[in-house]
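Look over this entry.
=====
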Amino acid sequence: MNQKSTGGGLASGSIWSIVDNLAQQVISFVIFAVLARFLAPDAFGLLTIAHLFILFTRLVVFDAIAMPVIRAGLPDDRFFSWVFTCCTLAGLLLAALMFFSAGLVSSLYRAPELKTVLQGMSFSVLFFGLMRAYEARLVRNMMFRQLAIRSIGSVMTGGVVGITLAAGGWGAMSLVVQQVAASGLALVLVVAQSRWLPRIVFDRALNKKYWSDIRQVGLTGILQFANTNGDSLLVSIFLGPYATGLYNLGKRVTSAVYLVIASSMQKVALPVFSDAGADMAAMGRGYLKILGITLFCVAPLLCFQAVLAEPLVAAVFGAKWLPAAPVVSVLALLYLLSSIVHLNDYLFFAIRKNRLPVLFGIAQLTLATVLAVSCYRFGLLGMSLSFCGAYLLVFPPSQIRLNRELGLNAQQVWYALAPPLVGSTFLVLGLTAYLLLVPPGISNVTLVAGGVLIACLLYPFMVVVTGWQIRSVNASWHGLLLSAMRLGRAR
């Protein structure tokens, strides 16, 4: 493959990967909002508990087995068949474990209805196991368009099925059928797109050769699962399905902003950091530019959600979801910090400080667990504050260490981040005043629409004003420095 075709494939793959991610988030959010109108929070809580098991198997088992084939130089069909055999066997065992342990798990959660949900979702575990080798083959051949079509088609079809059943009164089982239908259709589509039929391959040499990689990816997957889903797991253990459903809504609303914007900027950050190489000054400039753009896009959306959480939740999801509004406000701050922390992790990896993100991640996870165990008696809001508190405690040392590695001082960081931070501060104050001054009796939809108008006018104005002020300060210091240099030469 020549350089041109490789570059074209990389550009096309990147575009389709972003389209896939964005489309999935938008479609899933719309489907979730519609389903929330028909179902109670405890139905989503039951599905979230079952989904935690599926996410664990995908990150820790299936991805660990498939990663060697993606990293391999020139994998052949025998290699892919070996991955298919391993993932299929793991899928069968894990699906059986989930199915037959459903009664025990439901009794531990004191939720009898959870048993049927777990048993139904066990079929998705098997489908994901059967699918993983096909996905690895498509990724290895840079066939991201096929993966995007597969994802969008399966999510939309599953959503239509789920909404139809929820409207018919199926309750939590409508969500189970939605998930199983989506994963089953995804398997059918990926098989049809691959045009490849695997064989059953057992190879001890391959097992021995890639066991170290599988173990390393699996351990990384455990840490990733704990950092991204440990909060939901703790909520489900201490507070049960109803609170888990409310927390899941708050997390879906706030994380959507992060997943669409911040994660896309992190993909852009990788080539920027790579181009900088060992030039720390260039690395620092690139980091501040990407961080400023990320906050410029993320901060106003999360601030808007934090202040207008109550009317926003009522207008989009219905009044029965109003107990989730305080959670939305707290998690908005959490994901604002998370967008910075995860970008910092990318930069630590770029400058070969690979252990630092792991250490900070372990520290954040440990603090979140300790605080959650201490605060669960204060209910869902107390646990949400504990998760946010863990990020607040870990963020300063992480940022200080990063600034030291890049040679950045406080003034440079402030000049880069002042426009979005000042704009967001005034946006919060403006929206708070708006809520206090608005007359009672206005509908939630009208209240949200008025907030959108204020945000669209106030935030850009304050960003522009702050940017001008910074430029004028820089210009004045630059002029003063030039004058001093000229005076020195004259003398």
Remarks:
- DSSP finds 15 helices and no strands in the chain.
- Residues 1-10, 475-491 have pLDDT under 50 and may be disordered.
